[in-house]
Design brief:
The protein is an alpha/beta fold. The chain folds into 2 domains: about 350 residues, no CATH class; about 325 residues, Peptidase S8/S53 domain (Rossmann fold). About 50% of the residues lie in helices and about 10% in strands. It is built from 28 helices and 13 strands. It comes from Micromonospora radicis. Pfam families: Peptidase_S8 (PF00082). Belongs to the peptidase S8 family. GO terms for molecular function: serine-type endopeptidase activity.
Amino acid sequence: MQAPYSTTGSTGSPWAIVSAVLVGCGATAVAVVSQTGGWLVDQVLLVGGLDRLVPFWPLASLITALVIGTATLPLALLPRSRAVRTAGRAWLAGALTLGVLGMLRALPPVHHELYLGALAATAAVLAWLSARLSHRLAGVARSTDWATPEVAPPPPVREVPEVAPPPPVREVPEVAPPPAAGPSVVTLLAATAGLALLLPWVWLGALGGLLETVLAGLTAVAVGALAGALLDVRFWGTVAGGEPVRPARLVLLGGLVAGLVLLLVGAGVGQSGTQLPLLVALPPVGFALAALRVLSRRHPRTTGRTSTAWLVGLTVFGPLAFTDPEEISLLLIGSRDVPFWVAVAAGAGLVVALLLAIAYGLLLARPTARAPRRAVAAATTLVLLVTVGAVGVGAGQPGLHGERLFVVLRAQADLAGLPTGVGKAGRDDRAEEVYRRLVDTAERTQADLRRELRRLRLAHTPYYLVNGIEVDGGPVVRAWLSSRPEVARVLISQRLRPLPAPAEPSRGRSAAPVGPPWNITMIGADRVWSALRVTGAGVTVGSSDSGVDGRHPALAEGYRGGDDSWYDPWNGTRTPTDRSGHGTHTTGSAVGRGGIGVAPGADWVGCVNLDRNLGNPASYLDCLQFMLAPFPPGGDPFDDGRPGRAPEILTNSWGCPPIEGCDPRTLRSATDALEAAGILVVAAAGNTGPFCGSVQDPPARYPDVLTVGAVDRQRRVTDFSSRGPVPGGLVKPDLVAPGADVVSAMPGGGYAALDGTSMATPQVAGVVALMWSANPDLVGDLDQTRRLLRATTTAVPTGSGSGSGSGSGAQGGDCGDAGNVAGAGLVDAYAAVRAAQG
């Protein structure tokens, strides 16, 4: 009866081994492809401006778990080899863990604290269930006939005197001291390895808020405990083929099997993007755990779960705590921003994990290897802990950098019955009155809430253009604020975490164009300069963007100057600067000299509302408030605003999507107030075409905003130009302008050609500057200005035979009104200025 089980102590028959190898490779490929592919799907939806698919990750996780589980289930049940069955069961458990944890990604990334809390609780429950199930399976195995030869075959019985001779018995008090003596050598070595894997994240990443960091720590503890339950003593005792265990085989085979288990667990940990570094760092950890298991076998009272929990928990804590999943985004991938540094940290983690696997395998798995003294292991752990702290405080980005909350109050200012004067003087009178009413309303209705925030020592910044307050705080503060009667709603105000090194500034590679570029001649701006002698003199354009290079030859002369023409709420710069290049390019298209700007005689003022291509409701309001009532450096927007110095026209090549914290109503009160003040807001439609209804993000969707789409050299609406209608049936965009291959200024004195509705928008702002320069009585008369612009446009093709038509039908039909593709048509500067003069 014993003959059929004579090989159960080995790794098994060839067919079982081949099957296990094939299943393991397939499971690895499925997990990696599903996770990277899922992240790419999320990014395509984000870049395309499409709604997030809430069921996507639950379905993807369920399908992945089913595919891997179906492949591993036969390995868990059929082979005679206990080692192969153990591998199959461990992989099956890992697949189920991935399926359960992955479903939590249905929670929106913007509510990261809620997700981390749910993840920690779920991982803890799974750890408890896994431990209970492991104990029951162990009891069943001991009570079955088929398991008996494997658990206690004759050779191990004969070798008992060799495995546990009297000398080791006498040394037990030294090897396994009482619990009060502190952690074992194995646990200390595991903690040392975990701290080494944490080091790249402490150096290159940045923590979020306090609650976010605490929850990330709890999640790491729960995931570590889960890994310890999955890779318990029973797993290590059988995965390498039973007794007698050969250390090299345990490290190699056990490390391979454990690495896949950890990969499956890591694939379910973190929001979309955070799990990607874990797919790289966790698999090599399996080999280090196997080497530690070899060492722990020489310490009978060491279970190994604690060491697994320490090593896996610290590995998981790095990307969970030191990265924001919303920033692992294609929106930031164009420069050395968060995605770049996450990739660097993940690569460094892989190198560290491989070195640890090799070092621990060579040092601990040798037959003659001896465990280091506990004092040496403890000293090593302490040194590495101090190193991690020093790196975090010195070379890292110390402090907490979590999101803030933007509180919108119910009361908004009454702007009816404003002065009705015409021209610049009339516009200034209206702006002054609007500013006064807005500030009075905010001061009166925010008083009680601001008093409470001061009492609770919650840092906050009040705003008046939208009656609201930005506040430090997490979910608890948000719940308290939402319950107050004066509060309408509370939004997340996204904050970018700092980088270990500044992103490289964008530079223009091209020389200045010879003569006006094609976009200038297409809309006839050069004819306005030459035939009508109008260049925009006497008008000021305000640019809210990534900044402006104030020393660029095409822009230096047009800067208005004074102490109230530049504001940088992100970095506090005192002179116009720009690292991204986006704002320099758009400002150049509006007012740049040398033929690149539509209104080269106009002045400009600037404000930074985008830091590294992402903003939030507060930063957008910082700049819009500054445009309504500029103030000097260090001034209080409530007390030191100068409405009489407000620019006449605002160019806005940005939008505030939900990922930044905006909802459709967030900035509506701001654009209403600017409209009432006689300041024309021009905004980009967005680059989320060719889908219908893709003009979604504020402020482009508002009726009092002049929304601009883009055409190419052939006067066709570009595929990327967003289409209407907006909710409620409003036709958008209002008109289109050249937005493909547009040449303009870049930081450092160079030039570059860029695409986007961002490039089209400032040209329309420049056309309005020409109109108001030609007829100053039109200044502040926004209705008449919009009528003249629409009445003088030229038609562009929008039918199914054009480039735009194919885009507009991309969702199975056209976008309704033809204006939802091209608005009133292509702006015509010459015709518009002639109409303004007439």
